[in-house]
C-alpha cells in the first residue's frame, strides 16, 4: 500500500536551503571541495526529508530526471559550444580575432567595447553561451594582452551576452517567460526595456570609468601585448575565410535555423580550415572538437590562453548541472519549493510587495535549482493569478522573472550558466559577478517601479497573449 504523503512545513522546506548554503559556503568557499559532491550532499538532505514526508526514492528519482530533461537543451548547447571553441582556435579564427583586437581596441575602452559587441551579437543570435564561447574567449585573450583585470573583463562580457539573452526574440528564455506568465512575446520584450536599458547603461558607464582607472593605474603592458601578437602571428596563418565559421552561426540565428546542427556545421568548416590554412593533420583537427586545442607556441602565457575547448572540457559543467537538477528536482517533487514560494506569496497584498515577492521567488529558485528555465517557469506559473487579481498586466510578471531569474543564474557558481561562464572565460564566478553589473541591477529597477508605479502596466484585456496587451 502506498504511504500517505504529508505536506512539508516551512521549516522542513528551508532545511535543504540551509544545507546547501552551509555546504557550499564552507565546503566550496573555504575548503574548495568539488561543487558537484556538495550539491549531491544537499540533495541527500532533501531526499531524507522527502522520505520522512512519505515520498519513495523512485518518486524523487523521477522528480530530478524530469528536472534534468527541462535543462537538457541548454546542456546540449553547452557541449556543442565546446566543439566550436576547440575547432575555432585550431583553424585560427579566435587567434585572428585576438590579434586584430589587440591591434585595434584601446585599453581605455576595452570594457565598453567588449560589453557592447557581446550585447549586439547576443541580440542577433539569441544565445549567451554561443556569444561567450566564441567572442567572449577572443575578448579574454585581448584582455590578457592589454593587462585588463580579468574579473572586470569577464563581467563585462557576461553582462553583454545576457543583455541579448534577455531581449532577443531568438532567445529561449525570452520566449519562455511570456509563456509562463501568459503575456505576449513582443510586449514582453518592449516592457523589459524599462528595466534592462537603465541597468545596461549603468554598466557601460561603470566600464567607461574603469577603463580610465586601468589606463592611469599603468596596468597596460605594451611589451606583453606585442609578445602575444607576435607569437600568434608566427604560429597561425590569417585569412578572411576564417570569418566563415562565425558567419555560419550568425546566419543560423538570424534566420532561425536549428542552432545545434549549425554549430556542428560551423565546427566542421573550422576543422577543414585548420587543415587548409594551419596545415594541421586530419586526426588532430577532428580531435580538437572532442578534447580541445593544445597550443605549443613556446610562450607559456599564449599556450595557456589558447589551450582550451572540446566537448570533454564541458563534462565538468554537465556533472554540476546533473547534481543541481537532482537537488532542485527533489525540492519540486516533494512540494518543498512550493511551500517556500507560497510563503512569499502570502505577504504580496500590494503592487510593490507583489513585485518584491516575485523578485525573491525567482532569485530563490535560481539559487536552489541553478536553472534559468525553472527560475522563470515556477514563479511565473505560481504568481500569475496574483497579478491578475491586482489587475496588473502579465508582462509585468514575465519581465520580473527575467530581471531576477534569467540574468541572476550566471552569477550562481553551481548553475550550468555560472560553471560554463567561469570555465570558458577562465575566471571564477565570484570574481566576475561584481562586474556583471546589468545582471544584478535590473531587478532593483523592477522593485523601484513596483513601489512607485512607474512603468507598471495595468491589465487591459482578458487574453494577454494578443500583441498590444
Describe this entry's structure for a reader.
The chain is mainly alpha-helical and 469 residues long. Among the domains are: 11-53; 71-314, no CATH class. 75% of the residues lie in helices and 0% in strands. The protein contains 22 helices and no strands. The chain has helices at residues 10-28, 35-52, 57-91, 93-104, 110-125, 128-146, 150-167, 172-181, 185-216, 222-235, 244-254, 259-277, 282-291, 300-306, 315-333, 336-346, 351-369, 372-389, 394-406, 416-425, 429-432, 437-452. Helix 1 packs antiparallel against helix 2 (35-52). The chain is globular and about 65 Å long.
Largest sheet: none
Order of helices and strands: HHHHHHHHHHHHHHHHHHHHHH
Tally of helical segments: 22
Through-space gap between termini: 50 Å
Structural class by secondary-structure content: mainly alpha
Q: What is the count of β-strands?
A: 0
Low-confidence stretches: none
Mean pLDDT: 87
Outline? globular
Backbone CA Rg: 23 Å
Proportion of strand residues: under 5%
Percentage of helical residues?
over 70%
Amino acid at each position: 500500500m502506498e504511504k500517505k504523503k504529508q505536506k512539508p512545513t516551512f521549516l522542513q522546506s528551508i532545511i535543504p536551503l540551509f544545507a546547501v548554503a552551509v555546504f557550499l559556503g564552507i565546503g566550496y568557499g573555504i575548503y574548495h571541495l568539488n561543487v558537484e559532491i556538495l550539491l549531491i550532499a544537499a540533495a541527500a538532505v532533501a531526499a531524507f526529508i522527502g522520505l520522512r514526508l512519505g515520498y519513495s526514492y523512485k518518486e524523487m528519482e523521477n522528480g530530478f530526471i524530469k528536472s534534468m530533461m527541462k535543462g537538457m537543451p541548454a546542456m546540449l548547447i553547452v557541449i556543442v559550444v565546446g566543439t566550436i571553441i576547440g575547432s575555432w582556435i585550431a583553424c585560427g579564427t579566435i587567434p585572428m580575432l585576438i590579434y586584430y583586437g589587440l591591434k585595434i581596441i584601446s585599453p581605455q575602452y576595452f570594457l565598453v567595447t567588449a560589453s557592447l559587441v557581446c550585447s549586439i551579437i547576443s541580440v542577433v543570435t539569441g544565445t549567451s553561451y554561443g556569444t561567450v564561447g566564441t567572442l567572449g574567449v577572443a575578448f579574454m585573450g585581448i584582455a590578457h594582452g592589454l593587462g585588463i583585470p580579468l574579473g572586470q573583463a569577464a563581467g563585462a562580457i557576461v553582462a553583454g551576452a545576457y543583455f541579448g539573452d534577455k531581449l532577443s526574440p531568438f532567445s529561449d528564455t525570452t520566449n519562455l517567460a511570456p509563456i509562463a506568465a501568459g503575456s505576449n512575446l513582443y510586449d514582453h520584450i518592449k516592457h523589459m526595456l524599462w528595466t534592462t536599458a537603465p541597468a545596461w547603461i549603468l554598466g557601460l558607464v561603470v566600464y567607461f570609468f574603469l577603463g580610465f582607472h586601468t589606463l592611469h593605474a599603468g596596468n597596460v603592458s605594451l611589451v606583453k601585448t606585442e609578445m602575444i601578437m607576435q607569437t600568434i602571428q608566427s604560429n597561425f596563418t590569417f585569412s578572411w575565410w576564417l570569418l566563415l565559421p562565425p558567419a555560419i552561426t550568425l546566419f543560423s540565428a538570424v534566420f532561425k535555423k536549428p542552432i545545434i546542427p549549425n554549430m556542428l556545421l560551423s565546427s566542421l568548416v573550422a576543422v577543414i580550415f585548420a587543415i587548409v590554412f594551419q596545415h594541421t593533420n586530419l586526426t588532430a583537427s577532428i580531435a580538437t572538437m572532442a578534447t580541445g586545442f593544445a597550443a605549443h607556441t613556446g610562450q607559456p602565457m599564449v599556450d595557456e590562453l589558447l589551450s582550451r575547448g572540446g566537448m570533454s572540457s564541458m563534462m565538468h559543467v554537465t556533472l554540476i548541472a546533473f547534481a543541481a537538477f537532482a537537488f532542485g528536482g527533489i525540492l519540486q517533487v516533494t512540494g518543498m519549493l512550493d511551500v517556500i514560494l507560497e510563503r512569499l506569496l502570502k505577504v504580496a497584498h500590494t503592487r510593490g510587495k507583489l513585485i518584491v515577492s516575485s523578485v525573491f521567488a525567482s532569485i530563490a529558485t535560481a539559487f536552489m535549482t541553478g536553472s534559468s528555465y525553472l527560475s522563470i517557469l515556477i514563479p511565473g506559473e505560481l504568481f500569475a493569478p496574483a497579478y491578475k487579481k491586482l489587475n496588473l498586466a502579465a508582462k509585468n510578471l514575465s519581465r520580473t522573472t527575467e530581471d531576477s531569474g534569467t540574468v541572476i543564474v550566471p552569477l550562481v557558481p553551481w548553475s550550468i550558466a555560472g560553471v560554463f561562464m567561469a570555465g570558458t572565460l577562465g575566471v571564477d564566478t565570484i570574481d566576475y559577478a561584481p562586474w556583471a553589473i546589468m545582471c544584478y541591477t535590473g531587478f532593483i529597477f523592477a522593485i523601484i517601479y513596483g513601489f512607485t508605479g512607474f512603468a507598471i502596466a495595468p491589465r487591459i484585456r482578458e487574453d494577454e497573449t494578443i500583441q498590444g496587451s
